[in-house]
Amino acid sequence: ASKNQKTPEDTASSLVCFGDSSRMIEIQSQMSERALELLSLPEGHPCFLLDVGCGSGLSGDHLTEEGHCWVGIDISTAMLDVALDREVEGDLVLGDMGQGMPFRPGTFDGCISISALQWLCNADKKTHSPPKRLYTFFSTLYSSLTRGARAVFQIYPENSEQLELITAQAMKAGFTGGMVVDYPNSTKGLDSDTADRGVPNQVQFSGQRSRFKNMKGKSVKKTRDWILEKKERRRRQGREVRADTKYTGRQRKPRF
Amino acid sequence: MKLLTHNMLTSHVKGVTKGYPLLIKATEVKVSEVEFNPQFVSRMIPKLEWSALVQAAEEVGHLNDLPTELLPDYENNEEFLRKVHRVLLEVEVLEGSLRCPESGREFPISRGIPNMLLNEDEA
Fold first, then answer.
1. What are the beta bridge partners of residue B9?
2. Residue from the list A73, A107, A126 with its beta carbon closest to the beta carbon of B47
3. ∠ CA A241-A58-B47 to the nearest 5 degrees?
4. Highest mean pLDDT among A49-53, A176-180, A188-192, A240-244
5. For residue A209, which phi and psi values (nearest 5 degrees)?
6. Three-state DSSP class for A26?
7. How close, in Å, is residue A63 to chain B by CA atoms?
8. What does pTM read for this prediction?
């Protein structure tokens, strides 16, 4: 880990952070697993998924592990070259998410995106407005998903305005859904250079494409989603809560 | 680029209404072995534009005996599913380009990765 570790978007040479730090790989790995969990795909069903900002394919590997087929899209040829060298199973596409998803309607059963969405929030000299790019991204993504499919985004929000901007454009594009906030992990194990920074606040935004009004906002009571959300609420309240595992919310055998 | 992905790719250039299917010009094609999952293939079939798949297979020289029309009751036809599996997941275009049928705009493919980046005026 380098000194004064900032989030990747603050530095010009952001590629280094994800590619060769074993700690970042570990974090990415955890986030990918979490994202996949939040996708709530039916068990035992191989699905066709989209990984937005797939980079070197770290998150894609998790999709492959779960038996899914995936397409990854990223703007960086350097990162995609690493993915090729790592021989990832997913098909890779070079593209800019702010220009829209180049796929036919109803293509994907789900979408994950790890640490990519915040790139759309930065206005660089070449681009037009972040809201426009965000909307272009979300609206084309929405259409490329099958009905009822979910898109799960893991992001490091800079501030609440950024979060609001993202949410607003996603909703405008038709997504309903909510925010799951994972609080920073303890600074155990980090060296003194990075201890003050810790692990950045993470936010998982899970947007579900839905045409049914009653699916907006809260989850149906007693479903796995509801259980996960309730556990998050209780964690925020500072209560002791069991870790989320694959057994969470699983159907139990009927008891006599 | 697998033909499954190709079947889903469209041109998203501003102003283009019929940017699908993209015409394949392949200079290098690779065939590899991918584990056959009949359930997955069966589920993908309804999502496919069948004629575009047939056209693509032909363009890369791997049409073989793939039927030009979808067979009814394909879910139980293992032989058919295997043919579809081969064309969808085992044939990859490594080098070449994709051409928009409406505008003629070409998207190059390099190392199996199609370049869908748009210019300023196209976005």
1. A103
2. A107
3. 95
4. A49-53
5. -80, 120
6. helix
7. 14
8. 0.76
Distance CA A27, CA A41 (A): 22
pLDDT digits (tens, 9 = 90+) for A102-154: 999 999 999 999 989 888 887 665 657 889 999 999 999 999 999 889 999 98
B11 inside 8 A of chain A by CB: yes
Residue A121, min C-alpha distance to chain B (Å): 17
Kindly list the distances between the CA atom of residue A122 and the CA atoms of A98, A126, A132, A177, in Å, as whole numbers in the listed order.
11, 11, 12, 24
Among A91, A104, A140, select the one facing B20 at the smallest CB separation.
A104
Looking up tokens 């700690």 gives A23
Q: How far is A40 from chain B (nearest CA, A)?
A: 18
**Per-residue pLDDT tens digits for B44-76:** 999 999 999 999 999 999 999 899 998 889 999
User: In chain A, which residues have their Cβ closer than 8 Å to the Cβ of B118?
Assistant: 96, 99
Q: Kindly indicate the confidence band of residue A211, based on its pLDDT and cuts at 50, 70 and 90.
A: very low
* Chain B residues whose beta carbon lies within 8 Å of the beta carbon of residue A75: 117
The structure tokens listed for B89 are 């997941």
**DSSP 8-state symbol, B89:** I
φ/ψ of B71, rounded to 5, equals: -80, 140
Residue B14 touches chain A, beta carbons under 8 Å: no
Rounded to two decimals, the ipTM of the complex is: 0.96
Distance of residue B66 Cα from the nearest chain A Cα, in angstroms: 22
Q: Residue A104 and residue B37: Cβ atoms within 8 Å?
A: no
